[in-house]
Amino acid sequence: MRLARNLECGAVLLGDSATRTAVKVMALTGHGRGLSLPLEAGTESQWFHGVVVVRPMRDFVVKEIAFFNRWTRQRAAFVPTFTTGGPRRASIGRLAEAFIVELDRDFPSTVPTVCRTLQKLEPRAEALAARPCVVCGMPAEPDAHAWRSRLTISNAQDTEQLPVPVEASAADSLDITSCLCYSCQNMLHHTTPGTVLPRFCTTQLQNAEDSTASANNHNDLRAKIEEFLIDDSDGSDNEH
What is the DSSP string of 152-216? Predict the structure, then answer.
């Protein structure tokens, strides 16, 4: 997204097939990303302000794309990941991929069914109004930490040890729990204190703090001058 903004691109087209979309739906659900699922796997997403994400290949399964590339002699691009070629239990994404591929082998309607279910999902209003998570950039629910504490069994002391941003020291460490989505809270729960996060997390955190401070200043100013403001309804009543 940063590259698209730097190049002033208004849209980003991704090559996610129907098979890849079905795998992503299962993987995101396993990661606890149900709130952001329509934004991360939907046909079109406008969550990233100024850049529209479109997935024009999501109506074709991976076999159709493979046959088309072979018959038309198209050059195929392959981008490996950390778990490429690894066992199915290497990650939740790898396990979801093995599940969808093996199930679709005997039941060809698996992928279309998952994709049709995804099409029925709409982003919730609180997701669109939430601020971005400082790690993944997806909506961070304001009450994600409290909800996670009620549903998730952690250690006996039930302590939260989240990493501090890269430019924060142990003396002035910051609590970034409220700036993380549910999934990232689960991912970073067992990290040790002093873990260094990427620099873009610090930038995201600073932007979130600036937005919060600006909103608080606006509310404070509004409260101070509230008694001097003229209500529009009063003016309309006087005219009548």
Answer: ----SS----PPPPTT--STT----GGGS-HHHHHHTTTPPTTPPPPHHHHHHHHHHHHHHHHHH
Single-letter amino acid, residue 112: P
Taking the model in full, what pTM does it have? 0.72
Q: Is 29 exposed, middle or buried (0-12, 13-18, 19+ CB in 10 A)?
A: middle
- The encoded tokens of residue 110 equal 């698996």
Query: What does the alpha-carbon distance between residue 89 and residue 34 come to, in Å, rounded to a whole number?
Result: 21
* Per-residue pLDDT in tens (0 to 9) along the chain, 240 residues: 778 888 888 899 988 999 999 999 999 999 888 888 988 888 888 788 788 899 999 899 999 999 999 999 988 777 888 887 788 888 898 999 999 999 999 998 999 999 999 988 888 888 888 888 888 888 888 776 666 665 655 554 544 444 444 444 444 556 677 788 888 888 887 777 777 777 777 776 776 665 555 444 445 555 655 655 555 555 445 554
Q: Which residue has the tokens 């040790």?
A: 192
Interatomic CA distance for residues 41 and 138, integer angstroms: 12
